[in-house]
Fold this protein.
Amino acid sequence: MVNVIGLGYIGLPTALMLAAHGVEVVGTDYNPSLVDTLRSGRTTFQEEGLEELFAQAVAAGITFTTEYCVTDTYIVSVPTPYDPDSKKIDPKYVVSAVSTVLGICPKGATVVVESTVSPGTMDKFLRPLLAQFGREDVQLAHAPERIIPGNMLYELRCNNRTIGADSPEVAARIRDIYASFCQGEIVLTDIRTAEMTKVVENTFRDINIAYANELAKICRADGMDVYEIIRIANKHPRVNILQPGPGVGGHCISVDPWFLVGDYPGLANIILAARKINDSMPEFVLERVHSIMRELGMKDVSRVGFYGLTYKENVDDVRSSPTLQMLESMERHLCGDLVQVYDPYITYDMVANQHHSLDSFLEAVDLVVLLVGHDEIRQNMHRLSGKVILDTRNICSLPGTYKL
Ligand SMILES: NC(=O)c1ccc[n+]([C@@H]2O[C@H](COP(=O)([O-])OP(=O)(O)OC[C@H]3O[C@@H](n4cnc5c(N)ncnc54)[C@H](O)[C@@H]3O)[C@@H](O)[C@H]2O)c1
């Protein structure tokens, strides 16, 4: 039996996928209200296909609890933030979860950490727990997750995976568990390599996004069309520049590169620059809003609307979203509660002046800042005609639309 610890955006789909493919699974989360929701037959976030998978997993016998189970295999999928001062990983959640496991697990159990961790975390923070708890019999492994919200279930099945372990035997045993649903290649390696590989992947994305964002700033400074330039440059056989945007959010790309900055100061220079560029984008968008308002003589900030609160399209995850960063910045200037805000995926009240329908949002605004490319707005773009539009995602082709 596998006990999946942490039933958030990553742990829940993993637990369900395992259960739906014949593995006996108990899902554990220390948040009682989350467990109550799952027990009552409801999923805890929106993701295509999740409800169907949930039903399959429940039919196959998955159960949910706040308690840790006594079993031979644990998969730990708890948050791994960075410390805002040192920029190093803050391992408190993963240390706490593994400590609880070590207090109850039987001899020879395996603890698989799925959470993304900085290279060396397992040796520095988790391996010493084995000695501390007198549990040198327990095996550690690392199986970092690569899936993207919005396409999670497809990617769980089809992505390649990496599994790091101390011995080929442990790695092969964990591979067999994931192979119950994973059709991609499962690469077996050591723990340190698996840790570094995952962080390197997300850092690669961050740096490439930063390049596009920096180009947007350069082109804006000199009146050039960054999208046209990227479109033409990408016709080169070895060039593939990403699209600029309002910033980077979520629990991965805006977090993991900091681990390298924190652990390798003086060496992680491009990585640090990329983080700073991407973190500067919400402020850059606000400056664009101000300059457009000045140009058009618009004075009333309460007629400005931010479309989208999530960090990417068609998901309900708002963690570190560019829109929230913009609202925080405006709050620091005492005008955070002036703009109108709407996101079809956020149905609860989260920020001031939040609308719960596109109709009411559009009625309240003259200037729409498109911050997230949800399908809803792509399908209703014609309804923005007559508005002033700042399109930070390059999704609107209405005449007169302002771009980044
Ligand atoms: N969200 C993503 O897109 C994504 C993608 C790939 C990898 N990851 C990585 O996966 C890990 C988990 O991220 P997430 O987005 O699922 O986080 P999350 O915040 O959505 O979920 C974590 C869950 O763990 C629970 N939890 C925390 N400590 C616990 C403990 N000691 N015992 C039991 N439950 C505990 C929390 O209540 C929460 O429900 C992170 O390391 C993240 O970097 C996330």
About this structure: The domain at 2-189 is CATH 3.40.50.720 (Rossmann fold). The pocket of nicotinamide-adenine-dinucleotide is lined by residues 5-11, 28-31, 34, 77-80, 93, 96-97, 115-116, 145, 147, 149, 250-252 (CB under 6 Å). Residues 210 and 277 are 6 Å apart (CA to CA).
